């Protein structure tokens, strides 16, 4: 099968959608399918996979789903999408996040063949989603296969498109995390006055909850002088550290934007992975990755994380935004080796259905239905 996948966000900026698209494409290629991914980016981008076609640097920065998305739109972008579709002669085109002005929306407008869309957003409060009922409706009606990464994302589709979608969660390459090598010197020996906590994400975004985690670390600092926090993600490091309480700044290691390999190593190096997010998450991919790495999880009690953690069997939860509760929960997990073992064992069981070897089969079934529905041979 010839599959064209459209990633709306800049390929060189790490994010959940980019990772999802990359892992899906590589799994499809592994199974023998021909895959081309179209994404914003420049030809001289280092480490560009051979299956990625770049459509030029993203020119539009818009607030979207509590973040700032780097997108490409306009007449030049439309010409590049049209050329990619013509040259690819795809059996099916799979776009991601077609709501904002992006390559995905342009593909919906231009493509006339079998079309599948995956919706990642879980918030209904978006001016782009509100356009579904007006100018975008004719283009989005062309989508013959709709995928939502979670029940929350599916609800957004139901409310704004008046149709339904199959829920296919994000996948994770379990073996990559399970076999990763920890950083040198980690994991550290058990220490009742310490422990190592991990965080991955854009720590400057309020919805990621870093301020909640900082307050919890500050509360724990006097009684746990050897407590450490490893942070990977984008942000203004100097400004961030300058605003931290001294007792917190001295125990944070900021790794910056890391490679996938180093993210895997980080998750293998910490005693606890903390996800203090406050909301607007459609899924919890990083929790799956932590489970795959065999790391105990402490996460905020939001719907997206609740589903991934199996109601709490695979991780400890605390009320979102409550730094005091987070501090107590971190102590509970850090100080109880048997509890951490139970959580990691439950995590290994919980993550198995999310391995890409399972998820890709569900995606392929949607492709086949979309092709059959369009009257084309599979």
How would you describe this structure to a colleague?
The structure is a single chain. The protein is of the alpha/beta class. It has helices spanning 16-30, 75-88, 103-110, 127-130, 137-140, 151-161, 174-178, 210-220, 237-242, 246-249, 260-269, 285-292, 303-308, 323-334, 337-351, 356-373; strands spanning 2-6, 34-39, 52-54, 60-64, 67-71, 92-96, 115-119, 145-148, 166-167, 194-200, 226-232, 252-256, 272-275, 296-300, 316-318. The chain has 2 domains: 2-171 and 355-373, 3-Layer(aba) Sandwich (Rossmann fold), CATH 3.40.50.2000; 174-352, Rossmann fold (3-Layer(aba) Sandwich). The strands form 3 sheets. Strands 3-2-1-6-7-8-9 form a 7-stranded parallel beta sheet, with helices on both faces. Helix 12 (285-292) links the parallel strand 13 (272-275) and strand 14. The model has no long low-confidence stretch (mean pLDDT 89).
């Amino acid at each position: 099968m010839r599959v064209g996948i459209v990633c709306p966000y800049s390929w060189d900026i790490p994010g959940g959608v980019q990772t999802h698209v990359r892992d899906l494409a590589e799994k499809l290629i592994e199974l023998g399918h021909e895959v081309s991914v179209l994404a914003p980016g420049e030809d001289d981008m280092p480490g560009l996979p051979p299956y990625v076609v770049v459509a030029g640097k993203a020119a539009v920065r818009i607030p979207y789903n509590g973040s700032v998305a780097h997108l490409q739109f306009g007449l030049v972008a439309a010409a590049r999408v049209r050329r990619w579709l013509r040259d690819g002669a795809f059996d099916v085109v799979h776009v991601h996040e077609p709501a904002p002005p992006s390559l995905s929306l342009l593909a919906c407008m231009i493509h006339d063949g079998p079309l599948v869309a995956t919706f990642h957003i879980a918030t209904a409060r978006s001016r782009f989603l509100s356009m579904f009922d007006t100018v975008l409706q004719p283009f989005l009606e062309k989508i013959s296969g709709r995928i939502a990464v979670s029940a929350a994302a599916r609800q957004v589709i139901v409310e704004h498109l008046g149709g339904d979608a199959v829920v296919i969660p994000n996948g994770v390459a379990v073996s990559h995390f399970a076999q990763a090598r920890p950083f040198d010197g980690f994991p550290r020996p058990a220490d009742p006055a310490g422990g190592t906590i991990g965080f991955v994400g854009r720590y400057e975004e309020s919805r990621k909850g870093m301020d909640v985690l900082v307050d919890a670390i500050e509360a724990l600092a006097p009684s746990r002088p050897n407590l450490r926090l490893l942070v990977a993600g984008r942000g203004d490091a100097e400004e961030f550290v300058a605003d931290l309480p001294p007792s917190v700044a001295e125990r944070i290691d900021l790794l910056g934007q890391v490679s996938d390999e180093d993210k895997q190593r980080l998750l293998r190096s910490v005693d606890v992975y903390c996800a203090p997010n406050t909301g607007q998450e459609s899924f919890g991919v990083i929790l799956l990755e932590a489970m795959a790495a065999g790391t105990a999880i402490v996460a905020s009690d939001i719907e997206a994380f609740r589903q991934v953690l199996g109601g709490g069997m695979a991780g400890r939860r605390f009320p979102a935004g409550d730094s005091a509760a987070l501090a107590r929960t971190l102590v509970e997990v850090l100080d109880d080796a048997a509890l951490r073992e139970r959580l990691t064992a439950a995590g290994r069981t919980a993550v198995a259905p999310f391995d890409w070897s399972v998820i890709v089969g569900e995606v392929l079934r949607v492709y086949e239905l979309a092709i059959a529905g369009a009257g084309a041979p599979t």
